[in-house]
Amino acid sequence: MTAPLLEVRDLSKAFGNVVTANNLNLSLTAGVLTSIIGPNGAGKSTLINILTGFIPPDSGRIIFQSQDITYEPIYRRVRLGLCRSFQVVNVFTGLTLFENISIPILAAHRRANGLFSTVSGEKAVREEAHRILQRIGLQEQGDLPASALSHGDQRVLEVGIALAARPKLLFLDEPTAGMNPVERIKILENIRQLSQEGEVTFVIVEHDMDIVFSLSERVIVLHRGDVIGDGPPEQIKADPHVREVYLGEEVVA
Length: 253
What we know:
Rossmann fold; six-stranded mixed β-sheet; four-stranded antiparallel β-sheet
């Protein structure tokens, strides 16, 4: 049997009397596009923050590729292939798209100290940056400053920056936040295509149920730090408890 890509064992976290992770146990399988949903305060962002090293758990273990990373620093997790994006756009607006992509590539090559002074002489870095820009559909804008992009394309660029770190597992925290419908369709199709390529496993935290149910292969539902639903979209849609506490529907007995 293939080991899970990531496994969470008895994970707990509380802020005072507010429990955001209550002895959570779950695993993520490589290649399965997964969404994590739940009402405000369910513990979604806290879970991502714990898994990616931004805050420590109170107890429990995190196993990534069969390695215990519970207390590993962020940079070690990134090097192992565990990466994330944020709810707020996090790009270098004063740098070109090519430069934004090159920074994590240089870091992955352990040559970040020289930054752009070495890029001109690094054929492999240049080729990788251009390849990523092509994968995310922004190759024509590579020489533009990131500030020239629309909000939606900046979010797409952020996915490209994350890809440049060579992740095996990538968490996207509300990737469509603030987008118009056209931008939303563009980034969703991009994520779908990248997922189908099989190099990166995506986990998305999202509030838009249309996005969740149209994009995901698996949906995990959190409520007050507990998993109350876990399965394919159609199963989650039909789950009475999920409908009651999250979708806000009355359940007919």
